[in-house]
Each structure stands twice: as C-alpha cells, then as structure tokens.
Amino acid sequence: MTAVPAPAVSTDRRRLTVHETAIGDRIYEIVTTACALVVPALVIAIAIAIFAGAWPAFSKLGLSIVTSSDWDVRAGRFGAAPAIFGTLVSSALALIIATPLAIGVAIFLSEFSPTWLRQPIGFLVDLLAAVPSVVYGLWGIFVLVPLLREQVMPFLRDRLHLGATPFFSGPAYGPSMLAAGVILAIMALPYISAVSREVLMAVPRSQREAALALGATRWEMIRDAVIPYAKSGIIGGIMLGLGRALGETMAVTMVIGNRAEISASLFAPGYTMASLIANQFSEATSDLHQSALLAVGAILFVITLIVNAVARWLVWQVSRDRAV
Amino acid sequence: MKALKLAVFVLFAAACAKEGSNSSTASSTSSSSGSVDLTGAGATFPYPIYSKWFDEYAKLTGVKINYQSIGSGGGIRQLSEGTVDFGASDSPMSDAELAKAKFGPILHIPTVLGAVVITYNIPALSAPLQLTPQAIADIFAGKITKWNDARIASLNPAAPLPSSDILVVHRSDGSGTTYIFTDYLSTAAPSWKSIGKGKEVNWPAGLGAKGNEGVAGQVKQTPGAIGYVELAYAKQNKLPTAAVKNKAGKFITPSVTAVTAAAAGVAKTLPANTDFRISVVDAPGPDAYPISSFTWIIAYQHQSDAGKGKKLVDFLNWALTKGEPEAPSLDYAPLPSEMIPGVRARVAAIDFAGAK
Fold first, then answer.
1. Is B73 in Cβ contact with A253 (below 8 Å)?
2. A248-257, pLDDT tens digit by residue?
3. Domain boundaries, chain B
4. A85 closest CA partner among A312, A300, A229, A277
5. Which CATH superfamily is domain B25-113+295-352 in?
6. Is B222 on the interface with A (CB under 8 A)?
7. ipTM higher than the 0.85 cut
8. Closest CA to A311 of A247, A248, A241
9. Range of the domain at A196
10. Which residue of A275, B45, B113, B263 could cross-link B333, Cys pair, CB 3.0 to 4.6 Å?
11. CB–CB of A279 and B174 under 8 A?
12. pLDDT at position B27, please?
C-alpha cells in the first residue's frame, strides 16, 4: 500500500466518466443502489408485518406471553415460556457440542492436515450445511433418537451416574431436548467450522513464524499467535451457527417431543418457538391464536436481533483489543 | 483486517445460500398451470381423494379446480376472507367463525368420512388390542401408565401384555385428526370432558409428533408406545390397530365399511333441516366404528359470481354421485347412500341471486 498509484487511478476514472460510459455508470449505480436498498426495506417490512400482527396478542396478553407456561388454545391462554426456554436451551446445547468440534476441525485443517486431505475433509464438512433440514429430522427419528434412547441416555444416566443430577434424570423416551441439541449441533457445525477455517487460514504466515522463532511449540504457536489473531472471525462463525440453531424448525420439531413444559432434564421432551409456530399456524382459526403465534415469531425475531447485535459487539470488541 | 473481511464475506455468502434454499422450497407449493376455473383451500386429510376427483372432473368436463391443502384453519380463514371459491375442513365451523364470514351464510357439504385409529407397538401381541373408550381416555390422560394395568388386561384376557411403561404419542400440530379423536373421547368417556375437544388440546401426558407420519414413526420406533393416526394412513402403512368398543357394546376393528356404518347410524336420526355440522363419533349401530367423522367442503350460499357458482354446484353434484364410489379405493369411507339426497338438496340451496 503506497501512495504512488493513487493519482493514476483517479485520472483513469475521470477519463472514463467523461468520455465513454457516463450513462452506463449511472445506470450501474442506480441498479446497485436499488439492490442495496431493497434488502433493508424487506427486513423492515417483515418486522412491521410481524409486529402489527402480533400487536393484538401483546396488548391483550401483556407480559404473560413471555412469562406464563400455560398454552391452552381453547381457553385462549397463550404463555410461550416453555418454547422460549426450549429455543434458548437447545441452541445453547448445540453450541456447547458444536463449537469445540468445529474449531477442532478448523485447526486441524488449517494447521495440521496434509494438503491432500484438506480439500476432501473441508468439502465433506461444508456438505453438512447443504443437507436439507427435513433429512436431518428423518435421520434424527430413525437413527439418532433410537441411539440416544438405547445407548447414550442409559450410559449417561446409569454408567456415568449422571442420573443423580437433575439434568440427566427421568425416563429416556428418545425425543428430548438432548436430541434437539445434538441435531442442532450437527447443523450448526459446518457454519462454525467453515468460517473458522477460512479465518485461521488467513492468519499471516509471519505471525506463525514469529511465534516459532520465539521458541513456541506448535501448540503454543496456535494458542498464542494464531487463535487470538482469528478470534473475531471465529466468534462471528459461532454466532452464525447460533443463528442457524435458533431459527431451525423442521428437524427440531421432528425430534424434540413437542411438549410445552420447562424441565431441567435434558432427557425430557421440550418445545421451541419455531416448532410451536410450525405446528400450530396452519390450523389457527381464532384471531387471538394467530396473533399469539405471530407474537412468538416477533419474540424470536427480537432474540435473533439481540444475538446479532451481541455478535457484532463481540467482534468489534475483540478486533479493537487486537489493534491496541 | 483481512481476516475480518473474509469472515464477513463468508457470513454473507452462507446467509445468501440459506435464504436461497428456503425460497426454493417455499415456491414449490404455489404452482398452478393454465387457466383455473375454481380455487379452493383447506384440509389436508381429504386431499388425496379430492385431487383424484378434481383430476377426473377436469378430464371429463374441462373445468379445472386448483386446491391447496393448507390445513382446515387456513381453508376457513381464506373462505371467510373470500380469497377462494370454496374451502374444506375436517371440523365444522363454529358459530363464531360463521359469523365472521364476510360474504354471508356458509354451507357445509359433507363429502367423505374419515376415521381415527389407535396404533401401538407391543411386539408380543398378535391379535388386535381391545379397548373401551374409558380405557383409551385413561391411557391418553396418563392415568394408566403400564401395559399390564388391570383396566387393559381385563379387556384382553388372552393377550401377553408387558409390564412396561406406556408412552403416549399425540399430534403436535393442530389437526382435524386430533379434533375427531378428542371429540370422540369427550363424547364417550365422561372423564375426558375436563380436557375437552379441539384441533389442539392440552395433553396431560406423552410426546407430540408432527403429522400422521410423525406419530406413526414415533410409535414404530418405541416399544410400548401408543398413538392415533388416520385410518387411511394406518391402512396404507399396515400399522397394527386396536379394536374399539362401540356404543352397541361390540369391539370393532376399523375399516371403511365400519365407518360408513357409523354415518348410516347417525343419518337415520338427522332432522330434515340439518345443516350437516354433525358429529358421528360414538355412533349407534352394531357395526359402527366409533371414532369417525365427516369431512366437509364449505362454500357461500349466495355466490357472487354466477359462472363460478354454477361450476361449483355442478362439481359437487358430480362428486356426490360419481365421485363417492371411488372413495374406498383410497381408504376413505363414502357417505351412506341414504344421506345423498339430503346432501344434494343442501347443494341445491346454493344460489346466484345476487350475482351480476
């Protein structure tokens, strides 16, 4: 980056503007501006539509839609607390499982993998993102849930004696918060690992060489020189995975058990906001019911916004630290 | 900075890819071809037989009918708003819903009958499980929790019932199937009244699964599970089904003829001026399968478009005469023949007086 070529570029551009493609440039500018404006306009329009639809429920039910656990369609009581709880817990569980795995994959691919292995493994991990969620759901019903019920849950509860804690107690039916967390982890993993891999690979060679020159082992080099450099990107990847987990509907609906109850046990069935909407919207005939479902959508929208805001803040925080 | 830029780019690319895949799945549902004469929307349950009827009717008369199986709730909503020419529902519209319709009175035209069957997973059992309405209510309310409970064992003295837990599987999505099942339990088992009937109810026990396939899949996967699915779905997938004790005291295994028998039993008692918003659960008659119900096409009595109104009436008359015999081939029960004149008289009440 030197200052020398800059004037040349600007004269170039002026010459083009004046002589040849003035109209073309103008059209190009208008088209790209329109593209850039359409997307935010769409987001705002969606938000307005959801909140307008949700307003009757918010004004009639007030805070009870967030705090109450009583979702009784016939009685007109709509408390979405179990669904909000389920969304947060299943997504958190997904991140707890997926993050170490995904970062492990990314570190292996960027630091240790022989070149011939890098492409196929990276491709296969990325492929996880391309599998339709209903396919994950089917796999969940026919493979994951029986595996959890017959092997994993009894192992956790009886062999590891985790049944004594409230988190792994109760009967193991299979469809459960745990099943939802595992499915979501698999779905979030490729997002986290793809982003982490790219940012790790983008860490300059000089960074690694400097650490090694100071006598660092390979592990110390990765821990102290590579990961801090890539931290903001990795956090961005984790937040992208979280966004995926929060909004996922189909696969979760198929394995979570759809029971509107708040339970400490991961073996117990649960519910998520997205599942609640997907399950009930098509048959919601009363206005309040429909509005309550839109209100749940609005809450999910707000939670997603908060997650994105936090992600941006974290990324900003981390990159600022590094700059100092 | 380069790393961050790259991360942002990857985030953006992944977001685009995700949106792309979402929109492609959404657009596939709303395809229509050529000119369409009538549009309808509603129940998913009768969709296979309706689409067969529409297909044959189009070949016969050239009248094209576009039907979207978006669910009974959506059908009622769209008809109320007047965005479709007719709707379809698995549960009759309530008086409150009828009052909200924008274009006057709505008529209910029963088309075929469906039934809900109890399916279960007890590997040791060879003969069908026999259940009374009270036993079914107690199982689904979580009051009977073991398969060898005396309240089940006394109904099945010869059956090798296991001592394992019962896992109840119900529908998680709002569904006409749930409506029929809970309508039956509230009618036939007094203790169910506190839970009530509806397309979705507050289940005291068990797991929720989406769709017939979700419930059937869950039951198949879990030894000791019990659930309810539509008759047609159970027959096509050869699921084990329970024999249910009917009002006459006989245990009836679900079948198309037993469902039509239930409607016939109720049809005899219908008043002449019925609006056909009637329930046939727990029907009288020795051969009636008790968990049965009509499914309806719903339409405005006063059609605003004479051309469309006439086409709709013609189609309904064709369906009630030529369409009915085809129902059993898709595991739907046809209306009992003694009901047809009454239903056709109801179709004849559709008029185009206000039409331009």
1. no
2. 999 999 999 9
3. 25-113+295-352, 116-261
4. A300
5. Periplasmic binding protein-like II (3.40.190.10)
6. yes
7. no
8. A241
9. 84-323
10. B113
11. yes
12. 36
